[in-house]
Every structure is written in structure tokens, then in C-alpha cells.
Amino acid sequence: GARGVPAARPSAAAMRPRRRRSRASASATEVDPADVYAIQSARDDGEEVVNAKAWLEARASDAPVAGVYATYDADEAMTFVGYRRDVVAAVRAHVERNGADATGVRVAAFANKTMATRANLRAESDRWIGEWVEANGGDEACIPKGNLAVNAADWTLAPETWPNEGAATVAGAGAAGSPTVDPRTGDVVSPYAEGGNAVGSAEEEEEPLDPNRELKELTVANVDEALNEVRPYLQADGGDVEVVGIEDGIVAVRMQGACGSCSSSTATLKGGIEKTLVKVFGDAVTQVVNLDDAGGGGAMSLSRDAVSEHLEKLSGAIHNYGGSALVTDVEDGVCVLEFKGPLALGQSIASSLKGKFPLLKEVKIKQIE
After folding, report:
1. At what angle do helices 343-356 and 33-40 cross, to 10 degrees?
2. Cβ-count burial of 144 within 10 angstroms (0-12 exposed, 13-18 middle, 19+ buried)?
3. How far apart are the first and last CA of the chain?
4. Which residues lie across from 336 on neighbouring strands?
5. Fewest CB within a 10 Å sphere: which of 5, 68, 168, 283?
6. At 248, which helix (H) or strand (E)?
């Protein structure tokens, strides 16, 4: 799967606070194994800010993948947003070059090559910057400092050539969010200002959704029909999507074929599938989840057996980090976990369970000796 979201005014869902697994520390020299474990057991869907060094260790053996990324300082302020064909190499370069300004990182991987175009990644990176600026007062002074033209020399990476494009000639091509410069005046044009992306850009802006548009009833049949819009992109990469069910505005799908094993299928849900469904059904869609386990234990199967089955798959890694965990109860969206080991590991397990089961509201950890 892949992710590509056109630049637009952030939605209410997009403005929700991002979860952090650990606070990035500018002085930290050691990586917490619990952080590495938590990152390895999750996908890079752009939903969390994590310790940058822990993320690099967790992704050290992964094949290169394109993606959008943001760096954060120790005070959790966004310092730069970029996109690259090899996002791991990019994050490593910023950690080495920008030090204390890159102690935290947030990544959305685009493993689907059909969707991982420069235009899609640029649009998503612009959305991230716009989201940050709006959440912090809406003033252009809130633009991450690494994306300001005056700081380009310290943050911009080497130009790179993208498939089906000529050689990169713009300094910093792939350094997303470096604000567009009006060639007539030399002034920086904010991507969040009206018409900002139109200056000097060949990328086509998407029309904003009409708030008075006619919305369809949220049913399995209608959702299946709506997804015909994105199926050609999935099928071109050897995948497809199946609608499994709907519950309380949560649409459950199952990614099939290549999309089922894709490392960024979660990003596909948010950037392609969920965006399409919101366009057709509006606020009736609260979330889209992937039942990526065809054998059961999917995101909508919130039961003690389903959670225990998922936890069993993690037991080897949990044991290696000196812990053990047992699900004692799952009721009304609350999971009770008997846990032995470092508290940070317990919190990482809880985060993993909540990421796997969206209907799980809370994980109560009962520490045992």
C-alpha cells in the first residue's frame, strides 16, 4: 500500500495529537530496547513521533523505501519535513547533521511504487507542515525552521532523480516543504497561503470538498462501490481491498495480495482508502482499519482470545527483553494485562495492542512480581 494525500486544509481527524512512544532527548546517547521493539512491531504510518535513533536501529535492516518524514527537537517542536526515495538514509543524515534538532522522527512509508510519486509525497509533506502551522496558531512564523529558505543550507539534502523524471536540478529536490519561491519576486510563498502551491509548481491542486455535497448511506455495498476509485492503483501493484464490515463508523477492510504484506498498507488506508470514503460518506466514517490477519484476530475481533493470540505472536520478543505478559480480561473495550518486566516494555506492549485493535480503548497493566 502507499500514501498520497493532496495538500488541503487539515481535517478535524488530522488535527488530533500525535501519540509519542518516548520523549526524544537531545542528551540521550543510549537507545531504549523497548522503544526499538515497539517500532519494529508497528508500521510507519505517520501517526507517531518516536526517538530518531531508536527508529534508525529498528529499520537498519529494512530495504530502502520512499516516504515522508518529520524531525523534532527535544521540546517536541517540529523542525523539518522532507520526503525522499530512501527515507532511512534521509533520517540518518539529519540525525548526524542536525543533532539536537533531530532527536525525534515521524515517518510515513510509501512502499507502493505506483503511489510513491514525487507529487504525492510533496502533497503529503505540505499537509504535515500545514497541520503543524495551524495547530500552533496559524502564523507563518510557525513553519518548521528547517523548511525556511534562510536555513536551507543546513537542512536540504542532495537532489535526487525520481522515476519517469529528468535529472534533479533544483537544489534540495526531495526536501519537502521548502516553501515555494515566487520567481518574479524571490519571495517565499507559504504552501498554506491561498494559491501558495500554484506559483512555480506544475502539481495540480485538488478541489476542496463541497460541504453541501450529497452523501451516500454508509453500508458495506456502498463502501465496496466507492472503493472502485482506488482499486486500479492497488491492482497495478498486485493488490486489492475487501470490505469486511462496519461498526460504529469504523470501516473494516482486508488488504489482499501484495497490499496485504506491504509495509505501508496502513498509510494506504489513510491516504487513499479513508480519504476516498470520507469524500463519499462524510463524517459517518470515523476510521478505516485493516484486518490484516486473515486467520482471525483482526482489528474488529476484540475478544480475549483475539488479543491473546496477537500477544502470543509477540511473546518471543517480550521474553528477549526480560518480560512476560498474560491477557486476563477484555471487556467493554478495556484489556487487563498481567505483566512482569520493565515498565517501559509494558507500555510498549500496550501501545502495540492499541495499534492492532482500534476498538481497544484502554490497556490496564497489572504489574506482578
Report:
1. 10
2. buried
3. 42
4. 329, 364
5. 283
6. none
Separation of alpha carbons 293 and 241, rounded Å: 13
Q: What are phi and psi of 358, to 5 degrees?
A: -60, -25
Q: What does the alpha-carbon distance between residue 102 and residue 99 come to, in Å, rounded to a whole number?
A: 6
Residue type, 235: Q
For the question of whether the overall pTM of this predicted structure is more than 0.70, the answer is no
Per-residue pLDDT of the chain (369 residues), as tens digits, is: 333 333 333 333 333 334 444 544 434 457 888 888 889 888 888 888 999 999 999 999 888 899 999 999 999 999 999 999 999 999 999 999 999 999 999 999 987 777 788 888 888 888 888 888 888 887 777 889 988 867 777 888 887 777 765 444 333 333 433 434 344 444 433 232 333 333 333 344 456 677 778 888 988 889 999 988 888 777 766 678 888 778 778 888 877 765 555 555 556 666 678 888 988 999 898 888 776 544 444 445 678 888 888 888 888 888 888 889 999 999 878 899 999 988 878 888 888 887 777 777 789 999 987
Q: Give phi and psi for 55, each to the nearest 5.
A: -65, -45
